[in-house]
Amino acid sequence: MKPKVTMIAWNQNDNYVVTAVNNHLLKVWNSSTGQLLHDLVGHADEVFVLETHPFDSRIMLSAGHDGNIFIWDITKGTKTKHYFNMIEGQGHGAVFDCKFSPDGQHFACTDSHGHLLIFGFGCSRPYEKIPDQMFFHTDYRPLIRDSNNYVLDEQTQQAPHLMPPPFLVDVDGNPHPTKYQRLVPGRENCADEHLIPQLGYVATSDGEVVEQVIGQQTVDQDEPGLEPSILDGMIRQLQLEQDQRTGADQESAPSGPPNGEGTPRRG
User: Fold this and answer.
1) Alpha-carbon distance 59 to 20, whole Å?
2) Residues 75 and 185 in one domain
3) In a domain, 235, yes or no
4) Domain stops at, among 125, 156, 190
5) pLDDT-derived band of residue 27, with 50, 70 and 90 as boundaries?
6) How confident is the model over 186-245, as pLDDT tens digits?
7) Are residues 98 and 187 both part of a single domain?
8) In CATH, what number is assigned to the domain containing residue 52?
9) Average per-residue pLDDT in the chain?
10) Domain shared by 153 and 121, yes or no
11) What digits encode the pLDDT tens for the residues 79-120?
């Protein structure tokens, strides 16, 4: 196999360069002379994550598609810590990205199964206030393109970046209690009644009918006897505020979603 560099990173003080090669080795080089100093052995698949410690020039983090996360001392060429991302009943999860916290005491990783892994010193109690499963109800909503080829949310006909804050749900689409909904940026100060999403019944791919968050549905105002829901009013109000902040072209926006003929102005 012809060797190929897949990732490259300088350490904190730029004295060393670390390269990831497609033969699963990490190589540590002297950045001034180009001399090869160490081969770091441990990964069993390609590595696409190399992160330097924010202030300790000895420390480098690597992670890859083999599910391994390593902390290296690149000055000695030794392995300091190792974690294998095994997921019960599903094998290992490939690690796609990692970042250190500014103080260097923690780092977070994301994997191919949608997990956020948080490592660090101290107690994990602060993280116990959030549920294990957290998704936005809009995460897998279908998208369409308008006449200008801009992306819109299919259900609301809105540009995704202009839509109101989504609701937090579990892996089955069931909404979390209101105390968790306040964790979503933009919902911190909402009244309790605005934190209860609309629910509806949808059919899954295997034909099973389940109750899930419908969220940003709108009511046809022309239909007699139908009143807009509290959620609809909140969505319209948030959309109006967003339009005002971003300097929307039109002076007055319609109460319902756009008709898809144009696209909202981008901030």
Assistant:
1) 15
2) no
3) no
4) 125
5) very high
6) 888 887 777 777 776 666 666 666 666 766 443 333 344 444 445 556 666 777 777 777
7) no
8) 2.130.10.10
9) 79
10) no
11) 999 999 888 777 788 999 999 999 889 999 998 888 888 898
Q: What are phi and psi of 246, to 5 degrees?
A: -90, 0
Length of the chain: 267
Q: If you write DSSP's letter for every residue of the chain in order, what string do you get?
A: ----EEEEEE-TTSSEEEEEETTS-EEEEETTT--EEEEE---SS-EEEEEE-SS-TTEEEEEETTSEEEEEETTTTEEEEEEE-EETTTEE--EEEEEE-TTSSEEEEEETTS-EEEEESS-SGGGGGS-S--EETTTT--EEE-TTS-EEETTT---GGGSPP--EE-TTSPBPPHHHHTTSTT-TT--GGGGS--EEEEE-TTS-EEEEE--S----TTSTT----HHHHHHHHHHHHHHHHHT-SSSS--SS---SSS-PPP-
Instruction: List the Cα angle 213/219/221 in 5-degree steps.
Output: 170
Residue 239 resides in a domain: no
Q: Are residues 113 and 60 in the same domain?
A: yes
Same domain membership, residue 169 and residue 211: yes
pLDDT at 203: 63
Block residue for tokens 């911190």: 188
Query: CA-CA distance, 75 to 31, in Å (whole number)?
Result: 13
Give the least confident one: 39-43, 175-179, 216-220, 247-251: 216-220
The amino acid present at 71, given as its one-letter code, is I
pLDDT the model gives residue 60: 92
Q: Provide the domain limits for residue 134.
A: 130-216
Q: Is residue 154 part of a domain?
A: yes
Same domain, 140 and 184: yes
Does residue 245 lie within any of the structural domains?
no
Structurally, the chain folds into a number of domains equal to: 2
